Give the backbone structure.
Amino acid sequence: STIETIRRRWEGALPPQVVLGIGDDAAVLRPAAGRRLLVSTDLLTEGVHFDARVPPRALGRKALLVNLSDIAAMGGIPRAFLSALALPRETETHFVEELYAGFEEISRAYRVPLVGGDLSASPAGIFLCVTILGEARRVVERRGAAVGDLVCVTGTLGDAALGRRKMLEAESEASPLRENPDLAFLWERHLSPTPRLEAGNLLAGEGLASAMIDISDGLLGDLAHILKESGVAARIFRERIPRSPAYRRLCGGDDHDALTGGEDYELLFTVPRQRQAEVDAIARRTRTDITVIGWIERGEGIRLVDEAGGESRVAPSGYRHFG
Amino acid sequence: STIETIRRRWEGALPPQVVLGIGDDAAVLRPAAGRRLLVSTDLLTEGVHFDARVPPRALGRKALLVNLSDIAAMGGIPRAFLSALALPRETETHFVEELYAGFEEISRAYRVPLVGGDLSASPAGIFLCVTILGEARRVVERRGAAVGDLVCVTGTLGDAALGRRKMLEAESEASPLRENPDLAFLWERHLSPTPRLEAGNLLAGEGLASAMIDISDGLLGDLAHILKESGVAARIFRERIPRSPAYRRLCGGDDHDALTGGEDYELLFTVPRQRQAEVDAIARRTRTDITVIGWIERGEGIRLVDEAGGESRVAPSGYRHFG
């Protein structure tokens, strides 16, 4: 059976934190003494989170990568994952094999074993639920941002959303975009986000980050979560928002995707101003670009400052600009 | 939003093992020192695992109860759960409220808080993925059954499957079954299985059970899992298989549902013969019926012995009788 095949494939290389993997009523893990346990679950639905454009191997990779990013955003280290899958009867075996091959690639790269799951029929559409377990000595929540803290992000923003949008454009006609290497880069960013585990763990472990989240809904939306939980406002400088060369070439000065596009899975965090040098050291040590894009102020919501110094406000409730 | 409502509802009463519940990138738990961590995930699909016959509150209850049963089958104590839900756009708010009310009933009764989850759209059908976390000083796996051990079960078998079958019959016509209190009892057994947490935990903690599983697929199917993992055979006496008075009245001598019907979520375990008195003591202490239905032998597969002493064999691979 498929479960037996999957089980045998994953049995060999169980790391020391796993006492018992796939195949019993529950997996059994050995938590490290004195650490916090982290757990998060994500449900991916065909037609909502992915479609036939995403090959099954890429889907497996991404489903695990975005869960690793949740652990990174807490400052933790991933330890194990479970996957529950509902498949329509007509799904080919090849699809399942490729999906698990995608899991396996990321599992090996990040040393996070599959320890359990479920496999069921679906009347229509593919559903994939991944649960990730991690641990941390010290976690960073969303609610610790303080007035005066710097607002920082890793990597570049908007690549995933722009990649997805341009890919849809490229498909709709005999578009010159199809052969565009910038689009290939952005699409890859959409398919294979980089969980910022090392940076997240160091930012948490050294007590640097006062609040942290990963950008899944878009910069403005996820920053709004931090601000609301922390009871503060932020001033963000649009020209400081890091955009990739591919983004700039395909999009010119338009920063809409960088502001509101989701699925970049970069870290967004706040840090006391006097500790900026330590953040720079972590950036160098982990070879991760980290950019200061603004700071925390009293009040609520986001003040967006453009190059000319003009200011617009973003409602605390979400993405819509006004004023 | 729905998530905010759910979050507020669950925020108040977090037990000491929960550092951070719903609303961040991951939940944060404080594992007890020296315990094993247990984790299991189940995906329930509309049209496969449930249908409109099951009211949403009962669905919420059952989804959590069957996960508690997985922890019972390992000998553990449940500590927290997560729920991921995909809903078609036309789903009424009332459905979600009732589903969560069902979670809440069981959550309070068993002191297992909801610490996280996901809520997403579904193109068609309702999908519900529950992940349970538990802990145990000592776990019981499926693979420890030894030649000479007794085979025991808690409660009565076949009620859930017979209840479901008779309910379908009762619906299909103006059936006298509709008013039958025995059917009401069996249907309740189908909707609200009893996770045998206290018995499971004592059987594990005192090192009594050598192998344990909960009966989700049916006695023969789940016993086959224990036998295969342990490399042994079993002799089972059909007249010893415990059946409820309601089952006997509705089904006479037919033991098909008791042998192969799933979803009873009773514990099936093996125990060294010389420790039977300790098992009886646990039965009394936890007010759980525990019945010896046979013993473990050399070989493979199941030998079913009927009242007249006739013997039939069940293939090690599954339910099909032959010989």
Summary: The two ends of chain B are 60 Å apart (CA to CA). Chain B touches chain A through 62 residues (CB under 8 Å). Residues 2-136 of chain B form a domain with the 60s Ribosomal Protein L30; Chain: A; fold (CATH 3.30.1330.10). Residues 318-323 of chain B have pLDDT under 50 and may be disordered.
